[in-house]
Amino acid sequence: MVVGPPGESEPFFRHYYSQEGRVVVHYGPIPEPDSLENQLKYTYETKIGDIDGDTLQDIFVNRISGGEPGNGSLEAVILQNAGNGTFTTFVPNSTQLIEAASWQAAAIQLIFDDLNADGFLDILLKDLASTISGALDQMLFAPGEILSYQPQGTKAVDAYLKQFIDEVAAYQLNDSYFVDNAELVETGYWAWEVECELFLWGDFWEWLCYSYPVWVEYWYYDYSGFNADAVDVWEAVEDYNNGVGSYQVVWEIFESLFGVELASDLFCAQVILALNEIENEDHCKGLSISAALEAVRRSIAQNAREIDIQFGRKTGLVYITGHRVFKILPYHMAVEYRDPNSFKVTTISAACDLKLCLGTGGKLVSGENRPTDLPIFNTTVAEVITNLPPAVYFESVKDAREKYRDCLPYYGFPESTPETDYNSNGFVAGIVAATGGVPDFIGRGFDSMSYFRGGDTPVPNIEFTDQAPGCP
């Protein structure tokens, strides 16, 4: 129930009815959701105690600074120990809140990221077993809705989830990952072979037939060693790309495994309207899946507090980053730098000037801070090594981008054409080389830009100088 003067866009207060039948009264303007950058400035405390007297240690997570109450981000929540390594969540009432506030402080490592790509910061409670015996690490998902305080849920980070994330991330980079790594099994079966011969029997010709056993041998790929849901994702994507399946199947596998909704329909609608490279809802879902996949992967792997806990990249360094509309569109890359003082992220990349032009016909146009180059969408491809201080080097990249003419012909798959057409990966490879940078791919499963489509067709150095030829 919203109450306010007629015609006012901002009500004075709202009654919020939760599933437990409680009523929350919000007085004043409805809060707005914070940007992820601002949410990263929130601070939280963690405490442990026993909220229900079952002798199991429960966890109290509480936001102590940052943001407005009811803005859809995580606030005060109790993770109730189920005794099997998992937890359930609930919002404490006033009595429980007082009790939980008196519990012993616990040094639980909190990793912050948007784990389901809905625009709200979630929390991974990491290395819980060092604090609570037998506890699995927990992904705690923000409410994701204004004036909602109940988290969307928790998900235990067990071996099955880790295997799923690792295998689907590998498949994201390598279309033939499952085939390349499946066991080729030799097997066979016994069958009866029948042979017939024509014999002269007296004055008559007769057929004499006889049978004998033979071993029929064949080979097949055994996928049973892979994560079953990861294989289902692979098969659903292949069906979709072959025109015989729905991308919704892929979406539902991820939501079922995570136990929460991924990016909302509203989020997808906003992305579709805002981003020139996103053509339809399937593409939006694919971008959201890629963002969630990378967020969970880097959060699970994260173990150094000094590394930027949202983006998996250190401030003050230059990186090549990239994203993919999950298994639909090719990889797209950007050069990224995050200022260590202001924490402002700047990206430089290029794209076709036409909407979703995977073929020829458009121009390769550069730009700063394209919406899909936000760190929430992009994973780390390489660190750029240079003899210059990173801030100085990135300024040289920006200067080179200013000199680029924005008129080279675009082609989504330039490796199959003469070196006169380029894509965004060729732009990034070219501008990094032209400014004296060298990509460092150590530990990332590939060793050159040629691993990515168009990365082996870099835009020539001269295109980033004052000597570049004029546009046609």
- The overall pLDDT average reads 84
Rg measurement, Å:
28 Å
Per the principal axes of the C-alpha atoms, what is the gross shape? flat
Could you name the ranges where pLDDT drops below 50 across 5 or more consecutive residues? Answer: 1-21, 303-311
| Share of helical residues | 10-25%
Largest sheet: 7 strands, antiparallel
Distance between the termini: 61 Å
Which assembly state applies to the chains in this document?
single chain
Strand order within the widest beta sheet: 20-18-17-16-15-19-21
Structural class: alpha+beta
Beta fraction: 25-35%
The total count of helices amounts to 10
Count all strands and give the number.
21
In short:
The chain is flat and about 110 Å long. Residues 1-21 and 303-311 have low confidence and may be disordered. It contains 10 helices and 21 strands.
SSE inventory with pairings:
Layout: E1 2-3, E2 13-17, E3 23-27, H1 36-39, E4 43-49, E5 58-65, E6 76-81, E7 87-90, H2 94-101, E8 104-105, E9 109-113, E10 122-126, E11 138-141, E12 153-156, H3 159-173, H4 177-181, E13 183-201, E14 204-222, H5 228-241, H6 248-258, H7 265-274, H8 281-301, E15 318-323, E16 332-338, E17 345-352, E18 363-368, E19 379-385, H9 390-403, E20 408-409, H10 424-434, E21 438-440
Antiparallel strand pairs: 1-2, 2-3, 4-5, 4-8, 5-6, 6-7, 9-10, 10-11, 11-12, 13-14, 15-16, 15-19, 16-17, 17-18, 18-20, 19-21
Helix pairs in contact: 3-5, 3-8, 5-6, 7-8
